[in-house]
Amino acid sequence: MFSALLLHAGRLLRLPALLSLTLLLLLGCRAQDTEANATSSDEDRSYQVGAPVSDSTVAAIVTSEYGSDTLTAEEFRQQLSFILQRYPQIQMNPALMPEVHKSIIEDFIVRHVVDGEIARQGIQADPAAVEQELEQIRARFPSPEAFQEALTQDGLTEDSLRGMIAQMVRQRTFREQIESRATPPTDDEVEQFRQQQAEEVHVQHILFRLAPNASEEEAAAVKARAQAVLDSIRSGADFAEMARRHSEDGSAQEGGDLGFIRRGETVEPFEEAAFALRDSGDVTTEPVRTRFGYHLIRLLERRQGTPMDAAEAREQLLQERKQEAVQHLLEELLAKATVRINPALVQAQL
To answer: Which of 4, 51, 125, 184 could be joined to 166 by an S-S link, Cβ 3.0–4.6 Å?
Structure first.
């Protein structure tokens, strides 16, 4: 959850490596290209939103007890361009763009509060770690001349790059301090986790797309369409046929068949609804809303797969707890921040 240096097309780019969980969610689809199968979502951020910004050279301004930071319009466009180049599938679905804009703004706010807290705590970067990172970057270039050329193209000097790396190291140190607070799981917790993660459900779904920034009226209209199809299924219509006719994702041609899924492979509301179905043929009692729209979900079968290795389960559970510790502190820090955006440039529902 912390910014870093990226190497892209042989050039040094001053862009955040952090793509917020929101953006990762949008891109974390399985091979079937179905939006039901994304990584679990994060909750809405706890920052405050202030009055709009009208300055055309500014994308956003964030203020907090740590001071004030500005994301310029040029920086915003640069980050957006990088994301679109790296993930060209976003351009195929314009409905995702508001979430991408939101991700850039949220990452900007995260960096502000994290860097502010790092400064407040006086966390320092280990000089040896900084030099090691710098050497690793140098080694990626075919010659010292190519490295210097890349620095010049990005308007950097070796000292300014070293300063950026030092901040990255401070961020990493800060994250590690937070993660160290996570409580290791007990043997019983590990075994329970292994059995739970081994459970699999084979489901079909029908997706009715809804943009993340849709109005209440739009949401109501889409939900009504989903409910109408659900009523038809309850009256005897074939689920697979309804999926082929109405579903708006890549699984439609397969009758909405998503295959077997395990916990952690889908967004949380979808997972909860799917695993709550008990018997083969059961369908969700109402449309299930996720950030992708409304879903109708039908259980085909359940099975208990092979439990993961105990050591792997322990490590995964510990990593989840570390992430929870980071997320909890991050929410506390974000609650101190107020962001103002330029709505003429940033198309995001904050």
So the answer is: 125
Query: Reduced to 3 states, what is the DSSP secondary structure of residue 324?
Result: helix
Q: What is the DSSP secondary-structure string of 27-55? A: H---TT--GGGPPPPPPPP--EE-SPP--
**Coil, strand or helix at 17:** coil
The DSSP result for 251-291, as a single string, is TGGGTTEEEEEETTSS-HHHHHHHHH--STT-B-SSPEEET
Specify the length of the chain in residues. 350
Provide the 3-class DSSP secondary structure of residue 290: strand
CATH topology for the 197-304 domain: Chitinase A; domain 3 (3.10.50)
Query: Tens digits of per-residue pLDDT, 28-62?
Result: 333 333 444 443 334 456 899 999 999 999 999 99
Instruction: Give the list of residues 6+ apart from residue 144 with CB closer than 8 angstroms, or none.
Output: 138
Strands 338-341 and 48-49: parallel
Which part of the chain is CATH 3.10.50.40? 197-304
The SS3 call for residue 100 is helix
- Residue owning tokens 């998503």: 258
